């Protein structure tokens, strides 16, 4: 009997592991730019809606990518089809246009309040009209429902979106993904965080994509372009000027749509270069100003530095998180220059400060900090906001680049208050976040980084601690300008974001955008303090040519404002925020969580309203074997059911054998 219990326990573990595997399968990277694709559910192999062709036109202006995607599908079956169009993208994507073309008829989608659009779609569906509805489930997950696609109908879906390109180590990267894999789809409209992976059938490894892929790109960088390349495809750039390049895929790659298209480039210059993009609209004009750090930084260019380490020592940090935090701080503090200053703020239920004034990073003070940090064991609650306020209020000398580094697992509830305090005090310090723990609160870690206009860093495993810490140290160690200000002289600007500028770092450009009115005259002047003293750079506005390719600036400005209003999470969005987000979505024709695109073909094509849901196979990513298909949840569940069946059979046999043995004994 003991053996039976042991066997059952093992099966329970197997079953639990299977459920865990299914859950893990359902997760995707929430911030990765993914490819749009059709997902149609139902009986496989009966009807299909295959992708025939994808044409992508990309216009990159400075740090903005404006993208037009046209995908052609054909209902090759004999029945009317209802389908769902899943469009995951990066959290920075702003979808501002959609068209549906059926045969020779083009239906331009209209932006409407979400519930109004949904009601119109359902009504059209019941009436037998072809219709499409594009909704935002999350900032990076969009779904479009299609109704009444008739046999042999050719559907061309055109989407327009724009996104900002954030450089990493000075390299800009644009990605258009073409590979279709498991994708996220919200199953709870009230709580989009609760969802499951879309079940998609795949072609076998030997099957090549049958659709064609054509990508053309124009880069107007505002600064000279260097190191233009594509690690994924062969490209043929044609240079219009040092700042402008046109490129397209070489012909053999037109049929290779089973891997992401990746484009990388760097902007030239060993000095701090500035650039300006302008777009004059019918009713409003928009600008984007950027100060790009040089590729190489000399030690004498770095201004005096001060680092304040705000460290979570609450109960949840006990164990691996706190021990890793100690090693991180020892490495960061131990590598400071003797001319640097630093301080340490430890917080749990309350906060402790190493010193009321900045400490010089000499051997004695570094040893003093190590001793304080090493004594921590992890206990109490987590009062982040008060710790951040205390760090901000510590004495600060003008002309010194001050950076506050938050180290925490993020288990607090006052996220919005912390974000607001950081954003409102950008001029007083640079804010960087470092999350440590097996399951950190990424919402807080990423929110702190975004509010502080920096990058989030996370360690979830001890094995990755050293490499991540080294990367973090490189990121924060080279401020180039502090006390940064941007003034427009003789150029009338308004609605400028951000209102306060952070320091200019070697790995982080300064980006400012807003609106302007009146003549294109005057100057932008960027000032600050470097290691060599006062710095000033003047850019003549009248020398900048306006480019139609910069039209995406209006959507970027609106998307950024919407992001500022909504990125703290739905629980923080009050009625006033909802009203403003809705108003911005309607005014700028943007998809938001409160506005949707609706397109209805008024012609009744399916009078009885009956339409089937079908499923179609898609190609595997390049280099992925058929083994990947076998890891789908259906197979896991089959193995789980098999284990349960084997357990039942085993137990029955055990009891039968026991009964026979008892009878024989009697």
Task: Give the averaged pLDDT, no decimals.
Answer: 76
CATH superfamily of the domain at 303-477: von Willebrand factor, type A domain
Q: Could you name the ranges where pLDDT drops below 50 across 5 or more consecutive residues?
A: 10-46, 180-207, 614-639
Indicate the structural class. Answer: alpha+beta
What does the secondary structure layout of this molecule look like, with pairings?
Layout: H1 2-25, E1 37-39, E2 43-44, E3 51-61, E4 64-74, E5 81-88, E6 94-102, E7 105-108, E8 110-113, H2 114-127, E9 129-138, E10 141-149, E11 154-164, E12 171-176, E13 183-186, E14 195-198, E15 201-202, E16 212-220, E17 225-229, E18 238-241, E19 244-248, E20 261-267, E21 273-280, E22 285-292, E23 305-312, H3 320-334, E24 341-347, E25 351-353, E26 359-360, H4 363-374, H5 384-393, E27 401-408, H6 415-424, E28 430-436, H7 442-451, E29 456-459, H8 465-476, E30 479-489, E31 492-497, E32 504-505, E33 510-517, E34 523-530, E35 533-540, H9 553-566, H10 575-587, E36 595-604, E37 614-615, E38 617-618, H11 633-665
Parallel strand pairs: 2-37, 3-16, 15-38, 23-24, 23-27, 27-28, 28-29
Antiparallel strand pairs: 1-5, 3-4, 4-11, 5-10, 6-7, 6-11, 8-36, 9-10, 9-36, 12-20, 13-14, 16-19, 17-20, 18-19, 21-22, 22-33, 24-25, 24-26, 30-32, 30-34, 31-33, 34-35
Helix pairs in contact: 1-11, 3-4, 3-8, 5-6, 6-7, 9-10
Keywords:
Rossmann fold, 7-stranded mixed beta sheet, globular
């Amino acid at each position: 009997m003991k053996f039976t219990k042991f066997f059952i326990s093992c099966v329970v573990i197997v079953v639990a592991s299977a459920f865990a595997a299914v859950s893990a399968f359902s997760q995707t990277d929430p911030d990765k730019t993914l490819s749009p694709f059709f997902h149609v559910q139902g009986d496989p192999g009966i009807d299909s809606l295959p992708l025939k062709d994808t044409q992508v036109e990309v216009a990159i202006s400075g740090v903005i990518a404006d993208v037009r995607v046209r995908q052609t599908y054909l209902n090759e079956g004999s029945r009317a089809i209802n389908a769902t169009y899943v469009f995951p993208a990066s959290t920075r994507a702003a979808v501002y246009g959609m068209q549906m073309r059926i045969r020779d008829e083009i239906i331009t989608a209209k932006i409407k309040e979400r519930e109004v659009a949904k009601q119109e779609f359902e009504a059209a569906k019941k009436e037998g009209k072809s219709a499409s509805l594009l909704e935002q489930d999350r900032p990076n997950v969009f779904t479009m429902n299609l109704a009444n696609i008739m046999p042999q109908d050719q559907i061309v879906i055109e989407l327009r979106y724009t996104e900002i390109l954030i450089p990493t180590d000075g390299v800009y990267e644009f990605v258009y993904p073409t590979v279709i894999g498991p994708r996220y789809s919200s199953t709870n409209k009230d709580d989009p965080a609760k969802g499951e992976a879309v079940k998609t059938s795949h072609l076998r490894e030997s099957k090549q994509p049958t659709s064609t892929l054509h990508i053309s790109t124009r880069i107007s960088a505002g600064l000279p372009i260097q190191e233009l390349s594509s690690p994924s495809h062969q490209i043929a750039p044609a240079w219009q000027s040092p700042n402008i390049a046109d490129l397209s895929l070489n012909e053999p790659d037109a049929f290779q749509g089973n891997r992401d298209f990746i484009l990388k480039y760097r902007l030239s210059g060993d000095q701090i270069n500035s650039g300006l993009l302008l777009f004059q609209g019918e009713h409003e004009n928009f600008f984007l100003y950027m100060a790009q750090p040089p590729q190489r930084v000399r030690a004498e260019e770095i201004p005096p530095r001060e680092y304040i380490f705000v460290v979570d020592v609450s109960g949840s940090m006990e164990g691996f998180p706190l021990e890793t935090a100690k090693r991180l701080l020892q490495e960061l503090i131990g590598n400071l220059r003797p001319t640097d200053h630093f301080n340490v703020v430890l917080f749990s239920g309350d906060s402790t400060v190493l010193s009321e004034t900045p400490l010089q990073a000499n051997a004695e003070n570094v040893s003093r900090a190590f001793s304080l940090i090493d004594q921590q064991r992890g206990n109490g609650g987590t009062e982040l906001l008060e710790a951040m306020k205390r760090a901000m209020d510590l004495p600060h000398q003008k002309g010194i680049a001050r950076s506050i580094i938050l180290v925490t697992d993020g288990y607090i509830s006052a996220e919005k208050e912390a974000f607001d305090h950081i954003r409102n005090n950008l001029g007083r310090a640079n804010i960087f976040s470092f999350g440590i723990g097996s399951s950190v609160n990424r919402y807080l870690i990423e929110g702190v980084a975004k509010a502080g206009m920096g990058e989030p860093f996370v360690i979830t495993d001890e094995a990755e601690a050293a490499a991540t810490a080294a990367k973090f140290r490189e990121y924060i160690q080279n401020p180039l300008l502090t006390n940064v200000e941007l003034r427009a002289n003789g150029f009338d600007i308004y609605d400028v974001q951000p209102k306060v500028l952070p320091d200019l770092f070697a790995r982080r450009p300064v980006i400012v955008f807003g609106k302007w009115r009146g003549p294109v005259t005057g100057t932008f002047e960027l000032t600050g303090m470097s290691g060599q003293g006062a710095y000033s750079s003047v850019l003549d506005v009248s020398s900048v040519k306006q480019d139609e390719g910069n039209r995406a600036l209006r959507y970027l400005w609106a998307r950024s404002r919407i992001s500022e209003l909504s990125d703290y999470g739905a629980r923080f969005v009050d009625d006033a925020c909802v009203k403003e987000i809705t108003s911005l979505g309607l005014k700028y024709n943007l998809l938001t969580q409160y506005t949707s695109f609706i397109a209805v073909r008024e012609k009744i094509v399916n009078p009885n309203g009956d339409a089937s849901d079908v499923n179609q196979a898609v190609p595997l990513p390049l280099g992925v074997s058929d083994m990947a298909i076998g890891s789908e949840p259906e197979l896991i569940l089959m193995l789980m059911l098999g284990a349960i069946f084997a357990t039942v059979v085993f137990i029955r046999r055990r009891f039968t054998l026991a009964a026979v043995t008892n009878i024989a004994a009697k």
